[in-house]
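pls read this stuff:
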Amino acid sequence: MVADIRSHDLAHTPGVGESLDWASALHMLGVMSLDLDVARETLTALVKDADDQHTVIDHLDELAAATGT
């Protein structure tokens, strides 16, 4: 999912540090399986820029619509 997010035209593309922040947040929350709802809820640990967050959320919503999730 991080690679997919990184493929978008973002002001600040998440790097290794942000990826580790997100993984740590998911671990602390006890997430065992990453789904689109969890991704939306924890996105700020990975994507720091507010405009980028909106871009990624829009993409996640499109992904959910396409997959019926």
About this structure: The CA atoms of residues 44 and 50 lie 8 Å apart. DSSP finds four helices and no strands in the chain. The mean pLDDT is 90.
